[in-house]
């Protein structure tokens, strides 16, 4: 048996991860089209974020 997707809820959002995509719906707005990120986009965002965190000149606390 394999996991096809994972669904979870936060106070404001419903999230589904699976089949190479990351989908986000505003809580209560399930009829609306979700925000969709493909796995390659997520990988790129994480790589850029990691590079920025590793840069001591531009690394600052928010």
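Sequence proposed for the structure above (62 residues):
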């Amino acid at each position: 048996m394999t996991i096809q997707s994972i669904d979870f809820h936060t106070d404001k959002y419903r999230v589904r991860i699976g089949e190479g995509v990351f989908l986000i719906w505003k809580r209560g707005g399930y009829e609306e089209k979700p925000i969709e990120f493909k796995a390659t986009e997520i990988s790129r965002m994480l790589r850029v974020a990691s590079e920025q965190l590793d840069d001591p000149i531009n690394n600052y606390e928010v």
